[in-house]
Write a structure and sequence with these properties.
The protein is mainly α. It contains 16 helices and 2 strands.
Length: 397
């Protein structure tokens, strides 16, 4: 039943994406124009919220469950729906509100001020916080536990102390932390991954052939396409709400911000996910699929490519990406609540509750957590799709 709903939603999103691209005169594809006027604050915030362990784990699970061809469907879906990222960002930038010395945006604001529907805006706000600031971040802590293989009780104490220390700063200082961490993580990962690809360049054509062949067979078309597209939605957080929130953090031009966030989506999918896919597929080419557990597979992959250093590097990478995403998620949750509730004591209580919920991800079965996340994400995307569809006429003008 849920798979049927997913298929209907995916078809609608593709059709809506194509129609939106046409209406936008294909602005979402004009990379040269976007590069001339990048909004780095929005780009860093977007990468901070979107480039978490979900980028690595999402790509790996897609390959493991849907086969190599699923990555093709991930690319195709991203291309066809990138206009929706542009549209979502434009709406977030249009209806942002001032909060203290900074700005805040998101689906709550363009629902409240765009549709003038307060009950619906409250519903979508709580769905967003539950989906992103709770379930998405629980996946982060769950992955840390699986990769590091540390006692969850000990790990929960360490993460709690670390988050408490970091969150003792003001919200805008958290953003500054993200601005410093994200570029370093991206550059280092790009360098070492590119090195591996160049080192194995002789087998890359064979791997590409396997990917294309897999994308066209029956299994990939049915399973790989669904898994690949679902993971594409997860990677890019399409119509989840983080895109519109990232676009509202400053007072820059709407079109510049929308173009910047669209570029961030391309970077995550076509650069980071491609490199992760190649690392995994090169390993499988030489060794086969040694395990059906994506965490174990990643450990094998990084150990194979980088020897003993690989396992430590993967652990460091997962921890850095997770903490960055967790900080972003808590910041997003607190910012959203702060606009509604002005009581500082209540905000502090909410902050502690968010941390405790996130830590609960250490004690939940990984497969159950992913299923729960997919289900709540489905509800949020459907609701957000309806709202964005209603507001599309505004951006075309």
């Amino acid at each position: 039943m849920l798979d049927t709903i997913w298929v209907i939603l995916i078809i609608y999103l593709i059709l809506l994406g194509i129609n939106t691209s046409i209406k936008l005169n294909f602005k979402n594809y004009k990379i040269k124009s976007i590069l001339k006027s990048i909004n780095f604050d929005s780009l860093y915030m977007s990468l901070g919220t979107k480039m978490g362990v979900g980028t690595i784990i999402g790509t790996t699970t897609s390959l493991l469950i849907g086969g190599p061809g699923s990555i093709v469907w991930m690319f195709i879906f991203t291309l066809l729906t990138s206009s929706l990222i542009y549209l979502e960002s434009f709406l977030g930038s249009t209806y942002k509100q001032k909060l203290g010395d900074s700005y805040v945006g998101g689906s709550y604001y363009y629902t409240l001020y765009g549709l003038k529907n307060k009950p619906l805006s409250i519903i979508i706000l709580f769905l967003f916080i539950i989906t992103y600031s709770c379930f998405f971040l629980m996946i982060q802590t769950n992955t840390i536990k699986e990769i590091l293989n540390i006692n969850p009780y000990l790990l929960s104490i360490i993460i709690f102390l670390l988050l408490t220390l970091l969150l003792n700063n003001k919200n805008n200082e958290i953003t500054k932390i993200l601005n410093k961490i994200v570029p370093i993580m991206c550059i280092f990962f790009l360098l070492i991954s590119t090195f591996v690809v160049i080192k194995n360049f002789k087998i890359i054509p064979k791997i590409i052939k396997v990917v294309i062949t897999s994308a066209l067979n029956k299994k990939s078309f049915l399973t790989g396409m669904l898994i690949g597209i679902k993971r594409s939605i997860f990677l890019n957080e399409l119509l989840i709400g983080t895109t519109s929130l990232s676009s509202g953090i400053n007072n820059m031009d709407k079109e510049i911000t929308a173009g910047t966030l669209t570029l961030g989506t391309y970077f995550i999918t076509f650069i980071i996910s491609s490199l992760v896919s190649l690392l995994v597929l090169i390993f499988i080419y030489y060794n086969g699929v040694l395990t059906t557990n994506y965490n174990d597979l990643l450990i094998h992959v990084f150990t194979f490519h980088f020897n003993n250093f690989g396992k430590y590097f993967l652990s460091l990478l997962i921890c850095l990406l997770s903490i960055t995403t967790i900080l972003s998620g808590i910041y997003i949750g607190i910012s959203s609540f702060s606009y509604i509730f002005k009581n500082k004591k209540l905000i502090n209580i909410i902050k502690i509750l968010l941390i405790l919920i996130i830590l609960s991800g250490l004690f939940i079965d990984t497969n159950k957590l992913w299923n729960l996340t997919d289900n709540i994400m489905l509800v949020l995307i459907i609701l957000n799709t309806i709202i964005v569809t209603i507001r599309t006429k505004m951006i075309y003008k």
